[in-house]
Amino acid sequence: CENGGTAVGEGCVCPPGYNGTFCQTGDPTKACQNGGTAVGTKCYCPPGFQGPLCEDPDPASACQNGATAFGTVCVCPPGYWGEACHSPTNPFCSPSLPVVCHNGGVANLTECLCPPGYSGPTCETVDATDQCADGSTAVGNRCICPPGRSGPRCDTQ
């Protein structure tokens, strides 16, 4: 199977955006939209979008107040918190200096949200024990498992 397709019997199950016997043909009408991430046969939508291909706007889940979409979560700027960063925080608790993150980490108030495979206060340390297992995909700060795998790092069959 090509393009991330999964062999099932004598055929392939294709990820969003591909079709054909071996998933060899690109099909943009079936691809994840609006920054969605294809994992297996499913699209994982960024905040602000929903639907099988992330094609439908979802204002209720959109990041607010200058927040940054990081995979499937909103990372709030200083002064805000909550799932969509809609709630102001106590100004006396906000940091005075922004946090600088490395290796794809994203600052969230006083800490960095590190992608799988990195750790440390600013995501500066490579952590081989915390990487997504083969065949899984890092989306934001979590691993998305292919069919047949489970666990926080998709290392359980």
From TrEMBL:
Keywords: Disulfide bond, EGF-like domain, Repeat, Signal. Disulfide bonds join 14-23, 114-123. SMART domains: EGF. Residues 1-24, 81-124 form the EGF-like domain. The keyword Repeat applies. It comes from the Eukaryota. The keyword Endoplasmic reticulum does not apply. One of its GO terms (molecular function) is signaling receptor binding. InterPro entries: Dev_Signal_Modulators, EGF, EGF-like_CS, EGF_extracell. GO terms for cellular component: cell surface; extracellular region. It holds the Pfam family hEGF. This is FBP1 protein. It comes from Pterocles burchelli. The gene is Egf1.
